[in-house]
């Protein structure tokens, strides 16, 4: 499905996100015929750049980060002609008025029907004033629709998120706002719905009668890289927990929506977030949530620095680079089923994986067995490997009645491989087509913050429970104890 003729405004056009993700995404959409020919991109940033310099930046970024290479494309010049730059101080209304003139000229030149998509790859503190100045500068008076696409972090807690939301809502309606959680753009995250709702052998079992627990792991091998300034203020709970992890959890736990429409799906997701059992006391936080920070360590024979030695990180920082939690979804379907979630920097593998552990079979038929039966597992591999596998028990070939677990494996990335679209590509395409299914609605964001705030507030008051773990390890032992208390263990990730 082609997106309609649109002008894409990339605010923060000289930044990292634009370079690594957004320009390559636009180019891939173009190469795949998913963009209307009537499109234009205006890069907006403070720095001064000539049109030629900007097009050269775009070329370099695509050449480096896109799976399609412009050097092999004869139509590159034609594509690049759709890109323009505007140097702008976002507090200067006159700059926005000039931008309006530039936009109208481009719309005439490329016959674009006045649809405008504003992508703010900027610090969230600027969302409010950019929105306001877009309105003041007459940028929202085109003949088509206006949409605002914004990046995380959406606030620091519920209060600041609500304030931020109020500011942008003065200018844009909720249905015009597309809040990015790039995990929702990942192929396998979107696939969770299909796996659940299109398979007769999963949905009937998808409840507390058959599922023992769910484990969600978002492991990263990287440290904080050059983002110490931001990260030391945010920490793993805000950086990954409030958004990506809780979003994954809602996809696993939500009820089938009444219709496969954005609003119905989002209604179901928000119900899950509202059903999360809040930790009522600090003791409950302590008993159910573990936080950690990496110290010096090594991986693949390479020495890795401690978090506190990273650039722009406070040398006595108490920020968590890891957390694990036991979460309950208190509704009819999930009562009593623990969801264990964990994420961390400097873990041994880069992986996003969901393991659904089914309840064990009564073993009476095989009582003679030396070993107890392994439970069935459904494993959804989101990132970087994409696929699903199911672990079932079968007779060990050649044996009398010995049973061994075998895996039925479907590797999506093995088949689709390098050509599968990137999350940002899908999300930009969706936003331009007006499909908000995989963007977060305000009530989802607010409910997620309400849950996370309780943990963060306890942590702020009690700082003694930060567990240290060596870089390159699987995090603090305390996170294993969380599961052991319930008679479970983390399944090794692949
Ligand atoms: C971002 C976080 O949202 O997600 C980063 O801010 C993290 O800290 C990144 O590294 C992980 O995304 P992905 O797609 O590489 O798993």
How would you describe the shape? globular
Mean pLDDT level = 94
The tally of beta strands, per DSSP, is: 17
Our Rg estimate from Cα atoms comes to: 24 Å
Secondary-structure class: alpha/beta
Low-pLDDT residue intervals, each spanning 5 or more residues: none
Q: What is bound: which ligands?
A: 6-O-phosphono-beta-D-glucopyranose
Distance between the termini: 35 Å
Strand content: 15-25%
Strand order of the main beta sheet, please? 16-15-14-13-7-12-11-8-17
How many helices does DSSP assign? 14
- In percent, how helical is the residue content? 25-40%
Largest sheet: 9 strands, mixed
Describe it.
Helix content is 36%, strand content 21%. The chain starts with 5 loop residues before the first strand and ends in a 10-residue tail after the last helix. The strands form three sheets. Strands 16-15-14-13-7-12-11-8-17 form a nine-stranded mixed beta sheet, sandwiched between helices. A hairpin with a 7-residue loop joins strand 15 and strand 16. It has helices spanning 16-31, 51-65, 76-80, 93-110, 127-136, 158-169, 187-197, 228-253, 262-275, 282-288, 412-416, 423-433, 442-461, 478-484; strands spanning 6-11, 39-45, 83-87, 116-120, 146-150, 177-179, 211-219, 289-295, 297-299, 302-304, 322-328, 338-344, 351-358, 377-383, 387-395, 403-411, 466-470. With 494 residues, it is an alpha/beta fold. It is globular and about 75 Å long. 6-O-phosphono-beta-D-glucopyranose (BG6) is lined by residues 182, 220, 239, 352, 383. Its EC number is 1.1.1.49. Residues 10-191 form the Glucose-6-phosphate dehydrogenase NAD-binding domain. NADP(+) binds at residues 12-19, 46, 89-90, 152. Pathway: Carbohydrate degradation; pentose phosphate pathway; D-ribulose 5-phosphate from D-glucose 6-phosphate (oxidative stage): step 1/3.
């Amino acid at each position: 499905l082609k997106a309609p003729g649109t002008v894409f405004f990339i605010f923060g056009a000289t930044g990292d996100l634009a370079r690594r993700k957004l320009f390559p995404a636009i180019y891939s959409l173009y190469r795949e015929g998913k963009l209307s020919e009537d499109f234009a991109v205006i890069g907006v940033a403070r720095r001064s750049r000539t049109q030629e310099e900007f097009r050269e930046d775009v070329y370099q970024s695509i050449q480096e980060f896109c799976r399609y290479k412009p050097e092999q494309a004869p139509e590159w010049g034609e594509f690049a002609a759709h890109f323009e730059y505007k140097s702008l101080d976002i507090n200067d209304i006159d700059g926005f008025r000039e931008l309006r003139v530039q936009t109208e000229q481009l719309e005439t030149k490329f016959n674009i029907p006045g649809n405008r998509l504003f992508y703010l790859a900027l610090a969230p503190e600027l969302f409010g004033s950019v929105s306001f100045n877009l309105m003041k500068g007459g940028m929202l008076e085109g003949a088509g629709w206006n949409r605002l696409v914004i990046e995380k972090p959406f606030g620091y807690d519920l209060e600041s998120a609500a304030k931020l939301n109020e500011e942008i809502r003065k200018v844009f309606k909720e249905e015009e706002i597309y809040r990015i959680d790039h995990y929702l753009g990942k192929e396998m995250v979107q696939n969770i719905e299909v796996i659940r709702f299109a398979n007769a052998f999963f949905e009937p079992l998808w409840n507390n009668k058959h599922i023992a627990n769910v484990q969600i792991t978002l492991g990263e091998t990287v440290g904080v890289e050059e983002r110490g300034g931001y990260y030391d203020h945010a920490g793993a709970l805000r950086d990954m927990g409030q958004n990506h992890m809780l979003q994954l959890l809602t996809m696993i736990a939500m009820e089938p929506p009444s219709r496969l429409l954005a609003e119905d799906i989002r209604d179901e997701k928000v119900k899950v977030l509202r059903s999360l059992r809040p930790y009522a006391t600090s003791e409950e936080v302590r008993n159910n949530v573990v936080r950690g920070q990496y110290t010096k360590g090594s991986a693949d024979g390479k020495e890795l620095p401690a978090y506190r030695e990273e650039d722009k990180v406070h040398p006595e920082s108490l920020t968590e680079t890891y957390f694990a939690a036991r979460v309950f979804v208190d509704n009819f379907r999930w009562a009593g089923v623990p969801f264990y979630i964990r994420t961390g920097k400097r873990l041994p593998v880069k992986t996003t994986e969901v393991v659904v552990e089914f309840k064990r079979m009564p073993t009476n038929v095989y009582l003679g067995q030396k070993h107890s039966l392994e439970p069935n597992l459904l494993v959804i591999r989101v990132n970087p490997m994409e696929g699903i596998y199911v672990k079932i028990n079968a007779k060990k070939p050649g044996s009398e009645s010995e049973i061994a677990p075998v895996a039925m494996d479907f590797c999506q990335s093995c088949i689709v491989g390098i050509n599968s679209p990137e999350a940002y590509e899908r999300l930009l395409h969706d936003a331009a087509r007006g499909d908000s299914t995989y963007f977060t609605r305000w009530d989802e964001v607010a409910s997620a913050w309400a849950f996370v705030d309780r943990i963060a507030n306890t942590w702020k008051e009690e700082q003694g429970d930060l567990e240290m773990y060596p870089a390159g390890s699987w995090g603090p032992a305390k996170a294993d104890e969380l599961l052991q208390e319930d008679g479970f263990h983390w399944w090794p990730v692949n």
